[in-house]
Write a structure and sequence with these properties.
The complex is a heterotrimer of chains A (629), B (263) and C (99). Chain B is mostly helical and 263 residues long. Chain B is built from 9 helices and 2 strands. Chain B has a two-stranded antiparallel ribbon with strand order 1-2. Chain C is an all-alpha fold. Chain C is elongated and about 50 Å long. The chains are: A mainly alpha (629), B mainly alpha (263), C mainly alpha (99).
């Protein structure tokens, strides 16, 4: 294992930026955004340097470690604050810092009119640092620190405009729902320590061969809970739609490209646990399959462009989770889809931000239309992202998504057929709602408000979009050429035997493209041929209504968890008042009562005390008299 | 052998005589201490108890302690008691009625119980055992024997006790010390006060006690020219303690001047 | 005559002193009663010294005397101080603990 002293700079640079920007206050308003961007870019440079170093070494020597300091040393429990950069982490490092830097650049312009732009950049840098710590930690405990850090940054950024109560509530909702997942992670760490005696990746990997399946299943399920919280997977997905309250660059960076994919990272990183716990692995697949349909269905009904994209993110991460749940054969494809998704979804979010920028922050797609002529660059980049997410060859999504569909079909038996069908269906629905977004936004008649003056965004905004669009076009091809990513990651994962091939890849691709074509056609018929109402129609089918309400997830949570929670709290409050307070007051009354009785003995006359001493002495002598007898 | 041990363990006849004479006296004096009204009488009875105890010490071959008992207790400690009694008021006598209800019967019951149990306990503990006697221990003389013990085995307690003595002396000084709260008035201030006061009556000084009265003791107020007693001619403490004689009986006109001169 | 007679006498004197402490109100008399109790203890010590045939008891009695002297000095100083502020030597007057 190679060691390096420069890993820490990856985290230290953006953390330094955040510290300076937060401590310097208003003095840094003039140059804060430049510093933040530079810090992110320099972290990216360190990442590139590490990649070049890594490429120069043989497969086994590629992972790099750095011990920062001895963190916890209690008895047999020793955790070092250590960093680990291996083939998996470097993918994330480059995605986080690369896309992160682009979004920093984009934000300089996007947030230029905001009074608190410096604070925004401080939070962005904080997020980058925390996210890097998450993917670089060499143990679950180190990962946990980053995990909480990105949760905090996400909370701060969703509620960046917390002067609006709805936004503040959205940030709180995201934070609370993330806590449930965080609890899962902490439970996983505790179980790992209790049963395996270690929390480091290396240690658990070594111990997983001999550990009991029950313990590994418990750890795996808890890790899955953590992943569902952070990655907005069923049943903890409800926060992601509301998280769109944050500024659009935040949605692009945190809630599309990086943080929400932390769950995928966690499951992929824990491959040795899931491989040894088939039950947990099956649950992962089920969660992924449910969420990919769930998100896609929500996406069909959303009129808010950002919420439609958020639903799409949910669905796409469902694909990744499903891929990661398929075992050694699927991990690499999950990561590949994660990377390509990072490009095209971030690009589309930035496009949505660009549209909002030109349309006075209007987010309702029914108030858009015919923007193609006014925003050609945005249209082009968004369109490339659209083709990528659909999986049209040769764009990025084609390579990554088709691989997951194919792997799902080939996972064997009825499971393979069900999963394959679900993923195919998801692809069709994705095509439908993304086409809907495209049509409503860029084509058809203009349905703007009077004061809207759509215009193309400035250079600093469209440049990152163009870069990401290039990524959307080429990343899939580059990563899958000669199985580049699969081979790159293969040392980390267990060997997988040849699977029975249910369908040939060409057949799967054909089926997927057919589904996509059907989805596009339906959307085209429904939204391009008919007039689109500027106000969402109310006389819609009950399914649409349900889909508009995020498939009743909020109502379900409210009815099942919030109401019962409130009742439980009320019962607890009453118990507290009656039992605990009663006991405390009772003790007080006891002391008071006995005190007022005993007070009578205190005459204050020294002679009465002397008499008491005399009585005591007499009793003592009597006792001696009795004992001696 | 048994007879010899018995003979050694028995006190000699003169001692028995002394004991049976002095012991009842001691108990009587101690009881009297409880029962007399005046504190001075208590002190006198106490002194007699202590002297009796000194005799008992000497009778039991504790010569040194007997002398110390007389010198320290009857000499120094009792003097201190009497001195304080003088300070507080010799004549004051206590009322012996009990003010705290039920205290006296409780105390006496407890004391009788205590004493009775103690005596019966002592009887059981020592019955049938004779005294060894101090003849061998005192072979070099009682004082030498004591000194040897004090300066060898007990040297550390001895030093500690000396520290205790010094501390007690310092403590008594601190307690008796009176902190002046105001600055002492100067001569000039006193003069100003005397002449710029409300009246010039005392400008030439306070009247002395006994002036123009039949008695010239310090506790008899002087008589003013009109024959009324001058209250400010005697010490306020005497007045407060009620030790002032009423000079009204010596007022002019009331005194029988017709009587002949004292022979 | 038995040496234990001295012990009975000491017990009697001690009891009388204890009663005096409780019954009498004049602080000085109370103090004298305490001295009586100490002296009774001394008599017991001297007697034990004789019974056991060594001088340790007398040494302890000697120490008791010293401690008693210290106690008298401090106690009488306290009485004087109280008398100075309250014009009374009755122990019942110093019952401020009650209030």
């Amino acid at each position: 294992m190679t060691t390096s002293n420069s890993l820490v700079y990856l985290i230290a640079l953006p953390l330094l930026g955040a510290t300076i920007l937060l401590l310097a206050g208003r003095r840094a308003d003039k140059w804060g955004h430049i510093l933040g961007t530079l810090m992110s870019a320099s972290a990216f440079a360190v990442g590139l340097y590490q990649l070049s170093q890594m490429l120069g070494r043989s497969n086994e020597a590629r992972p790099v470690t750095q011990k920062l300091f001895e963190w916890i040393s209690v008895g047999t429990f020793n955790v070092d604050a250590g960093l680990l950069l291996d083939q998996l982490s470097i993918c994330f490092v480059l995605l986080i810092t690369g896309v992160g830097t682009l979004i920093h650049i984009y934000s300089i312009s996007y947030m230029s009119h905001d009074h608190d732009r410096r604070r925004f950049f401080a939070y962005l840098n904080l997020f980058i640092a925390a996210m890097l710590l998450l993917v670089l930690g060499n143990s679950y405990l180190n990962l946990y620190v980053g995990w909480e850090g990105v949760g905090l940054a996400s909370y701060l950024l969703i509620g960046f405009w917390n002067q609006k109560p709805a936004y503040a509530t959205a940030s709180k909702k995201a934070f609370v729902m993330n806590r449930i997942g965080d609890m899962g992670l902490s439970f996983a760490i505790m179980i790992a320590f209790a049963t395996l005696g270690t929390v480091s990746f290396e240690g658990i990997k070594a111990a997983s061969g001999t550990a009991s399946t029950a313990a590994l299943t418990a750890i795996g399920i808890m890790l899955l809970v953590a992943a569902t919280g952070k990655s907005a997977q069923f049943p903890l997905q409800a926060w992601l739609g509301d998280a769109m309250a944050g500024p659009t660059p935040v949605s692009a960076l945190i809630h599309a490209a990086t943080m929400v994919t932390a769950g995928v990272y966690l499951i992929t990183r824990s491959n040795f646990i899931f491989d040894a716990a088939p039950t947990a692995q099956l649950l992962v697949v089920i969660v992924g399959a449910i969420t990919l349909l769930f998100g896609a269905l929500i996406g069909t009904a959303k009129d808010d462009i950002k919420k439609a994209l958020a639903a799409s993110t949910m669905s796409q991460i469902g694909y990744m989770i499903l891929g990661a749940g398929l075992g050694p054969v699927g991990y690499a494809f999950a990561i590949m889809h994660l990377l390509t998704h990072g490009f095209f979804k971030a690009g589309m979010f930035l496009g949505a931000g660009s549209v909002m920028h030109g349309m006075n922050d209007e987010v309702n797609m029914r108030k858009y239309g015919a923007l193609r002529k006014f925003m050609p660059i945005t249209f082009a980049t968004f369109g490339l992202g659209y083709l990528a997410i659909l999986g049209v060859p040769p764009f990025a999504g084609f390579y990554s998504k088709d691989m997951i569909i194919e792997t799902a079909f080939n996972s064997g038996g009825s499971k393979g057929i069900i999963l394959g069908t679900v993923t195919l269906l998801g692809a069709g629905i994705t095509a439908f709602y993304m086409t809907r977004v495209m049509i409503l936004t860029f084509t058809g008649k203009a349905r703007w408000d009077e004061e809207a003056h759509p215009h193309e965004s400035p250079l600093l905004m469209w440049l990152p979009m163009v870069v990401l669009a290039v990524g959307s076009v080429s990343s899939g091809f580059l990563l899958s050429r000669g199985d580049a990513l699969v081979n790159w990651l293969s040392p980390l994962f267990a060997e997988h035997g040849e699977h029975s091939e249910l369908m040939k890849p060409i057949v799967v691709s054909g089926l997927a493209l057919a589904m996509v074509a059907i989805g596009v056609a339906i959307a085209f018929l429904k939204y391009s041929r008919q007039e689109v109402a500027a106000v969402a129609p109310e006389d819609v089918s009950v399914f649409t209504k349900i889909a508009r309400q995020d498939l009743m997830q909020d109502r379900f949570n409210e009815a099942v968890f919030m109401r019962t929670g409130q009742q439980l709290t009320q019962v607890l409050v009453k118990t507290d008042e009656a039992v605990i307070d009663g006991a405390v007051r009772g003790v007080g009354r006891l002391a008071l009562g006995s005190g007022s009785i005993l007070r009578g003995m205190q005459t204050g006359f020294v002679r009465s005390y002397a008499a008491l001493i005399l009585i005591g002495a007499a009793l003592l002598i009597a006792a001696i008299w009795v004992v001696v007898q | 052998m048994v007879d010899l041990a018995l003979a050694v363990g028995q006190t000699q006849t003169p001692e028995a005589v002394m004991f049976w004479i002095l012991a009842p006296l001691t108990v009587a004096a101690a009881l009297g201490m409880l029962l007399v009204k005046k504190a001075v009488h208590s002190a006198i009875l106490m002194a007699s108890v202590m002297i009796n105890l000194a005799f008992f010490y000497i009778a039991q071959d504790a010569l040194f302690l007997g002398i110390v008992q007389i010198v320290v207790y009857t000499g120094a400690v009792m003097m201190l008691f009497l001195f304080i009694l003088m300070l507080v008021g010799v004549d004051s006598s206590d009322s012996l009625t009990e003010t705290i209800t039920g205290l006296r019967p409780i105390a006496i019951t407890a004391a009788v119980g205590f004493g009775g149990l103690m005596v019966s306990l002592l009887g059981r503990a020592t019955l049938g055992r004779g005294a060894v006697g101090l003849e061998s221990a005192n072979s070099n003389g009682n004082v030498k024997g004591l000194a040897k013990l004090l300066f060898s085995t007990y040297v550390w307690p001895f030093e500690v006790v000396s520290a205790l003595l010094i501390t007690a002396a310092l403590g008594a000084m601190v307690l008796a010390h009176h902190q002046r709260i105001q600055t002492r008035p100067t001569q000039r201030q006193l003069s100003t006060q005397r002449f710029r006061g409300k009246s010039l009556a005392n400008a030439a000084g306070l009247p002395g006690p006994g002036v123009f009265a039949r008695h010239n003791a310090v506790d008899v107020p002087a008589l003013l020219p009109d024959g009324t007693p001058a209250q400010n001619s005697i010490n306020a403490t005497l007045e407060a303690r009620g030790d002032m004689l009423n000079s009204g009986v010596f007022e002019l006109g009331k005194v029988d001047t017709s009587a002949g001169e004292e022979k | 005559m038995d040496a234990a007679n001295y012990l009975y006498l000491a017990a009697l004197l001690f009891t009388i002193g204890a009663v005096g402490v409780v019954v009498r109100r004049n602080a000085i008399v109370v103090f004298m009663c305490i001295e009586l109790m100490l002296n009774a203890a001394n008599l017991a010590f001297v007697t034990f010294s004789r019974i056991n045939g060594d001088l340790n008891g007398q040494v302890v009695a000697f120490f008791t005397m010293v401690v008693a002297a210290c106690e008298v000095v401090v106690g009488l100083a306290i009485i004087v101080t109280i008398y100075r502020s309250r014009r009374s030597a009755s122990v019942d007057d110093a019952s401020l603990l009650k209030r």
